Amino acid sequence: MSMWTSLEPASTTVDPGSVARVRLRVRNTGDTVEEYRLRPAGDAAGWTRVEPDVLRLYPGAEGTAQVEFAPPRTPDAVAGPTPFGIRVEPTEHPEIRDVVEGQITVGPFAELRCELVPLTVRGRWRAKASVAVDNLGNQPLTVSLSGRENGDALTVEPEPTSVQVAPGRAAFTRLNIRPGTVSWVGGTNKHPFTVSVQRAGVPEPTELHGTYLQPSVLPRWAMAVLSLLLVAAVAFVALWFRAVPKLTSSAREKAGASHKLPQKEEKPTAPAPSKEPEEKPEEKPEEKPEEPAGGDEPKDEGPAQQTIRSGANGGWYLQANGGSQVDGTQVGQSPQWTGEQFGRNQWWIIHHYPEDNSVALESASAPGSVAQLKPNTNQVELMAADQEQLKSGQLPPHQKWRLTDTNDGHTRIVNLSNEECLTDLQNDKGALSWKCADGPNGVQDWTIGEGP
């Protein structure tokens, strides 16, 4: 048994968001009827489709299938040449299966999103902020940043001043903000500032506007209190000097008058001892009974945050790529714990709905957003969910999943809309749903835990 295959053309180009097609020819050179199954393989398999995917050929007959490439306008379709393959698997004689190889070149596109975090900062002596730069294109971008000072009132210094961002990744730059002078009295001063983000090759920069609030060292209420204390001190001193008794004598000597001396020495009579005033017993202040310390009622913290790790190659973490919180953020995987860099982008809140034995996967870094299948695709992304539906479980099927235990202690995560398993592609770009394997499969077997 044998077969003959041909790919026409063997290479082609396509722009993200567009479609390109090539033709695959298969000839049955054997002497029995054979059925050939056609499957895409390689890095482009996620956005490649073969139609029809099964050819049934008589001996000597030839069939044609069309291979369609539709790369999404996302960082998943990296710009440049990408090899691809089409598996041709005979049903009757699988030992002669073959892979037809070709090359698809994806055109580049650039898309940049910048965000100032936070928009308003506060500090008496200095303040810090950050600029998040997200590369939503499919090629690396170099970005330079500069701060625009508001005259001599403010200094804004980015650190570093230039960053290179890979496709689908984010970079952060720290802003050091210092006022020109210290405000000692006078309330809170407001200083607007601007940060320019310049992408290489683009003449017009993106400008981000923020506000720096500088409180005075001594607030207005402190000055009012000091003034009242000063007035009270002056009044006390004045009253003190009025109340002091005068010690001058009322007897005056007349000029020229002589004093008569006594004839006999008389001993002065000792004055009678004055009666000491009775001491009143000290009145002790009434002791108020101590009120029992009351504590707030414990609050329901809701579902705990958990990590989701695949069972392949040490366990890749399921994450919200780049720590982003906007709709359409790709849900990907990373072999490392990135919680120190992006906060809670690898923590998930699992909401259980016993009515239909389903769950929703809410990202802890984007509260209110759940992992869903992007409509009409098998790509997994974050999307804001209706809060009432998230609470009641009345979410649409593409936003709900079913947890199924495996025999080896792992968990399969199955989407309700297509009954396919969440699959770890072993890269940090994007997760997909795929047909569930019959037996153990490390990239479809997940471990749900309480930490890294």
Features of the shown structure:
five-stranded mixed β-sheet, 8% helix, mainly beta, 452 residues, single chain, 30 strands, elongated
Structural class from helices and strands?
mainly beta
User: What are the segments in which pLDDT stays under 50 over at least 5 consecutive residues?
Assistant: 247-272, 274-302
Shape: elongated
**Biggest sheet, open or closed, and with what strands and sense?**
5 strands, mixed
Number of helices: 3
**Overall residue-averaged pLDDT value:** 83
| Helical percentage | under 10%
Radius of gyration, whole Å? 41 Å
Arrangement of strands in the largest sheet: 2-9-8-4-6
Distance between the termini: 52 Å
How many strands in all?
30
Work out the strand percent.
35-45%
Task: Write a brief structural summary.
The protein is 8% helix and 41% strand. The chain has 452 residues and is mainly beta.
Description:
8% of the residues lie in helices and 41% in strands. The radius of gyration is 41 Å and the shape is elongated. It starts with a strand and ends with a strand. A hairpin with an 8-residue loop joins strand 28 and strand 29. The strands form nine sheets. It has a five-stranded mixed β-sheet with strand order 2-9-8-4-6, with no helix packed on it. The chain is built from three helices and 30 strands. It has helices spanning 220-243, 339-342, 387-392, and strands at 3-8, 11-14, 20-28, 34-41, 48-51, 54-57, 62-69, 80-90, 98-106, 112-117, 120-122, 127-135, 141-148, 154-159, 162-165, 170-179, 188-199, 206-215, 305-310, 317-320, 331-334, 348-353, 358-363, 369-373, 380-384, 401-405, 411-415, 421-423, 432-434, 446-449. With 452 residues, the chain is mainly β.
